[in-house]
Amino acid sequence: MPTNPGPVKAIALALQGGGSHGAYTWGVLDRLLEDERLAIEGVSATSAGA
Fold first, then answer.
1. Using CA of residue 17, residue 18, residue 22, residue 24, what is the dihedral sign?
2. Hey, what's the torsion of the CAs at 9, 47, 22, 8, to 10 degrees?
3. CA distance linking residue 43 with residue 15, whole number of Å
4. How much of the chain, in percent, has pLDDT values that exceed 90?
């Protein structure tokens, strides 16, 4: 993680479900939430992705 993250980038997420995709989604979300350079402005999800 950079010490000076710079400008914040707004993103929206579309998360899919179905079987093992839920575990993958969880891991990706954990990483995205740690990144101070990102601001999650919207989420659309289905099934295990929700």
1. negative
2. 10
3. 8
4. 42
